[in-house]
Amino acid sequence: MTTALLHTAQELHARTRKGRRAVVMTMGALHEGHATLVRAAREIAGPDGEVVVTVFVNPLQFGAGEDLDRYPRTLEADLKIAEQAGADAVFAPSVDEVYPGGDPQVRVTAGPMGERLEGSSRPGHFDGMLTVVAKLLHLTRPDVALYGQKDAQQLALIRRMVRDLNFGIEIVGVPTVREEDGLALSSRNRFLSPDERRSALALSRALFAGRDRHAAQEALRARALEVPATQARAEALSAIGESRAAADAHAVATAAPGGPAAVRAAARQVLDEATRYDPPLEPDYLALVDPSDFTEIGDDFTGEAVLAVAARVGATRLIDNLPLTFGTLGAAS
After folding, report:
1. Is the previous residue joined to 104 through a cis bond, with omega within 30 degrees of 0?
2. Catalytic residues
3. For a Cys-Cys bond, which of 58, 149, 226, 231 suits 132, CB 3.0-4.6 Å?
């Protein structure tokens, strides 16, 4: 198939539509993570539908001192990747096309949820992000829009905006794509030197440590609850390699499922060690939050949660996250 390159909304609106239109929004510099989104969109749209990939580096979501000018712009390569993944069109508007007359005077405000975590570290970022997403949703007029779960707070805010403001568009989250070493795919990874990349791997290792601690605690608790006698419970716990927990089997059996505090501690230990790397990892935040509002969860929390981390390595800032499920015998997702 040949993917059309469009620069104006008029060109996009002139296209004949048959089935559903699925949109994947990007800032360009496409990689396998974006290609995964496009393939998912192709599946949702079906053979009779249309997949549109937007490529637009949005100036509103870059704060002072951030990398707007440094952000990679690789439209020719992006077009090839989008075509190979099954896109019907790439919509690459100019700044004037998206913001005629200059910066918009009326913008979407992310509210309290947009002031936490990424919003605290990057003031105004989510207002700019939601404003351009709202604009692009209106310009592309999709039935469904797909976003990566790597940007978990962004995805949650888009879902909230679409619901709160009655956009009438289906929002689909697609799981994070990782490289073989565990690093989440990001357009910013290309800025990392080999040494910086090795340090950056601490982000995913911290998340995996938290996930593994959660899974181990859930396994211990399940094993403990299967055995009625305290002595037998301790022996059962010892058999699966948790001697310290076996010393107090009753406490393990009655503890809050999954232990959010222990999950945070396991992840934090990895990040703390990485601050001594050369070059060092400079953590911004580690949080275990409720995805409905991105507030920290308590030890009695049950349901879906997100373990999120952000850090800087050299001049490059990276984010990552993992979903976890807390509840009666819950397990990591």
Report:
1. no
2. 34
3. 58
Of 97, 115, 104, 114, the residue nearest 158 (C-alpha): 114
Give per-residue pLDDT as tens, 92-130.
Answer: 999 999 999 899 999 999 999 999 999 999 999 999 999
The span from the CA of 175 to the CA of 14, in Å, is 33
Distance from C-alpha of 195 to C-alpha of 313, rounded to nearest angstrom: 10
Instruction: Using the predicted structure, report yes or no on whether residue 324 has a pLDDT greater than 60.
Output: yes
Per-residue model confidence as pLDDT tens digits over 163-204: 999 999 999 999 999 999 999 999 899 999 999 999 999 999
Look at the block and give the residue holding tokens 């290309």.
Answer: 190
